[in-house]
Amino acid sequence: MTLVQERPPHFDAPERRLVEIIPGPKNKGVLAYLTSTDHKQIGINYMVTSFIMFLLAGAMAVLMRIQLSVPNNNFLSLEEYNQLFTMHGSIMLFLFLGPFAFGTANYLVPIMIGAPDMAFPRFNAFSYWLFLGGCITMNSGFLTSSGAADWGWFGYAPLTEAIHSPGVGGDLWIVGVALAAFSSMFTGINLITTVFCLRAPGMIMFRMPIFVWNQLVTAFLVLLAFPVLTAALALIWADRHLGTHFFDPTHGGQPILWQNLFWFFGHPEVYILALPFFGIATEVISTFSRKPVFGYKGMVFATLSIGGLSMGVWAHHMYTTGAVLLPFFTVLTLLISVPTGIKFFNWIGTMFRGSVRLDSPMLFALGFLTCFLLGGLTGIMLAEPPLDFQLHDTYFVVAHFHYVLFGGSVFAAFGAIHYWFPKFTGKKLDERLAKITFVIMFIGFNLTFFPQHDLGLRGMQRRIAVYPSDQGWNFLNMLSSIGAFILAFSMLPFLVNVYLTLRNGKKVGPNPWDGMTLEWVTESPPIEHNFEFIPPIRSERPVWDLNHPDQRTLPHGRHARELAAQAARVSASSGDATRVVDGSPPTEGNGYGNGHGNGHGNGGPPPGDVGNGSSEGS
What is the share, in percent, of the chain residues with pLDDT greater than 70? Predict the structure, then answer.
């Protein structure tokens, strides 16, 4: 027999408060930093360390652009250029973009799902120290007598054999990449366990923010791709030191084996470096459009599709080897553009007829959309074998690659910094300096890399340090180098902004952007175990539901005009003194006030309590 009982008409969820039990005195100062297992501190460590690596790699890029600014230049020797080329790419891919994304995941994912910490806090700290060890190890190659690794960030065999690349610099590169890979795998395990096991009551999978979904799929890709890379690195080490010949063609080895292993990691790695920043852009666009994510489930399934398809398209990097089935990998490569196109459709749908505010995080998100779209279009071109055969080893590929990873991921990373900086520090970056940073960066980036499309079409090979003066490449290379200097200069207002804000910035409340997800209900910065209370989670936007209980969606477009007309009629019939200004209906306020009220303010106590976060407009 099945007993059926009617659901009670109204249920008030009891207030949930988290109590921390501390067994002894806490460490202070440097010791607290060194021994911290708090996911927020570890997330900050990841982001700061990876950003330092970004500045270092950017300085290397400027040196390379000086070398390429004029033909027949001898600013750098060929050996120095090869070392800078190798380390620039390796740092950007292994030590900046991925670790920065994991830093945002460390800090934000537990808060976004209502968890007090990561599932394995000490394991999480160990992951960061592995990453820091990888940074130090890889860059220490510059201190050796033979210099750093000089075989390119892709490490193509047989260049990696000891006879072609002797010296300890290459060994340090192998160990540094391996340490960063283990760090990423351990973080992936931690993220997956945290998301599946520590979600707050009511936080079902289809109420998680898109950012969390993207980080979850990224974590699975890490666990599928990075073991292949570490195995390939072990084979290189064995060839260099144990007398094996896995990649040595003179003793029966197969150099193309390395390409298969590396690109089986390398193409999922592109989406490991892109998907977290897709999630960042989604959160920013939704908040600053004042609308829920358009097509939420479509975004989730598009993310899952990208993750699945990315594991099967590695050989489109190997068209010109003649060792791959071109039709199969062409179809798969073109197919992966479909879920990416769905994401663009949904991002545009989120902004469509929304109350869009062009604050600095939104500007960086729009820069991400513009540049990544161009990178995606050139990617579709390179997916076609006839075009790829002509453009494969040219600067067209360099331009495409940078439009995808810098134009996409780096712009979104700066959007994340400006968006969540108030949550990280309790202080908001200066908007004027932030917008100056965006304008200079956007101009510098496009001036640097857009001409490289034309350079590739004119036949300029990539990976060269010197070129002749009679090929028609001189002006475009000079233009690209000027853009690189402008791009580097964009870091100055950003660093000044961060310094001045940390030193003299004014404190802001828990939710300065009127955000919608759970991190905006906590203090800024959050307390050690994140929450004093967790609001009821009945949708993917629990903080919006808390702060705007009678306004589940912000009126916009025709809906706003209809509500304004209705409010005017009600006001006229009742003699209410409330005025409707500029066609906008009366609103509840956004919770920025300091008075006492009904508890609907950002970061205030649960509804019904008296607190200092309530809205003056309620």
Answer: 86
